[in-house]
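Action item from last meeting closed. Structure (358 res):
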């Protein structure tokens, strides 16, 4: 086990522990283009060795829940079991309220689903109590307070220690805090997407003492655009670090409650990210990045807008035959589709037999 690179810490929530100022997002280790298990474990061990004490996962981080639900959670559990360090000091933050079917993510905030998901996560992680349990996203078909109420009952039962929210706005945070003690909020925040700074969510969380876990902090699939950004390149060259470390340091400088959770598929990239925890940018450097333009490509804007239309998501899933049986959308029901495979002339002939709209 090597010496820790992360010295800075930040409070996870009002009554929660302090964790490393840079966490680690484990999702890419279980989705498409994921590394082998051996490489994934090396990446996680490298992050832990470097001083990361917050690992973010979810039950839905897998290729398809029909055959590997909980893949990422089991991977995290194995990494902690096989690590030579103090695993009891690491907070594992997992999530529920999302389904992973046919390669897409769909919300499911029904209380019964959250209860079942919690029990599965406890088994996958091999623990008696989950450190931070987060509602993955509000489900537009389920009253938000019902989903949050289910988390409060799980907390009262001792199955989870702290409750977190993800992909929420100020009104939802306020509504949730009236039901359950909320420790943290996890929303997207990067140079490309600064909504949470502009709309006051980060400031609201800071005022309430809530940790703000910034996911996709270097832009997710857009991170390659950062390499050639003139402002970032200049600062990175002067500091002798990568542009990605500069971005993470910029996020940390935005507010005292922001905890970026970058992801990595290699040891090199994991270590590059955690070094940013103790990289203090000057006020002039922070202002230069604040003023810089990081435009989203039009296709990303359109995709994001369309992805938030429930009717369109339902239509795509119905066409793929992955819509859960009798799942309500308003007052209409879509029966599930069935995939039929027949052996004809030595070849598989696949036909989708669609259920009727009733």
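Sequence:
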């Amino acid at each position: 086990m090597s010496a820790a690179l992360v010295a800075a810490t930040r409070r996870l929530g009002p009554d929660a522990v302090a964790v490393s100022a840079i966490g680690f997002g484990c999702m890419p280790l279980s989705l498409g283009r994921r590394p082998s298990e051996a490489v994934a474990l090396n990446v996680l061990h490298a992050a832990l060795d470097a001083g990361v004490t917050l690992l973010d996962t979810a039950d839905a981080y897998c290729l398809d829940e029909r055959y590997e639900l909980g893949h990422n959670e089991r991977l995290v559990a194995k990494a902690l079991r096989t690590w030579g360090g103090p695993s009891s000091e690491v907070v594992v933050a997992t999530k529920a309220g999302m389904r992973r079917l046919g390669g897409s993510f769909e919300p499911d905030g029904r209380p019964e689903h959250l209860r079942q998901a919690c029990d599965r996560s406890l088994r996958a992680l091999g623990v008696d109590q989950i450190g931070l349990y987060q509602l993955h996203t509000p489900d537009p078909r389920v009253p938000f307070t019902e989903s949050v109420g289910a988390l409060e009952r799980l907390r009262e039962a001792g199955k989870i220690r702290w409750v977190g929210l993800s992909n929420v706005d100020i009104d939802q945070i306020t509504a949730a805090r009236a039901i359950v003690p909320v420790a943290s909020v996890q929303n997207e925040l990067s140079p490309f997407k600064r909504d949470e700074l502009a709309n006051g969510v980060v400031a609201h969380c800071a005022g309430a003492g809530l940790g703000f876990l910034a996911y996709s902090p270097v832009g997710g699939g857009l991170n390659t655009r950062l390499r050639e950004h003139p402002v970032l390149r200049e600062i990175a060259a002067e500091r002798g670090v990568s542009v990605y470390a500069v971005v993470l340091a910029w996020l940390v400088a935005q507010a005292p409650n922001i905890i970026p959770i970058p992801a990595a598929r290699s040891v090199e990239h994991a270590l590059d990210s955690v070094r940013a925890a103790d990289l203090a940018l000057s006020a002039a450097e922070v202002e230069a990045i604040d003023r810089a333009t990081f435009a989203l490509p039009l296709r990303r804007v359109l995709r994001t807008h369309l992805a938030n239309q429930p009717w369109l998501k339902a239509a795509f899933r119905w066409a793929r035959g992955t819509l859960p049986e009798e799942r309500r959308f308003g007052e209409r029901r879509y029966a599930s589709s069935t995939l039929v495979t027949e052996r004809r002339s030595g070849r598989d002939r696949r036909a989708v037999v669609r259920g009727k709209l009733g």
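Note appended to the action item: The longest strand covers residues 160-166.
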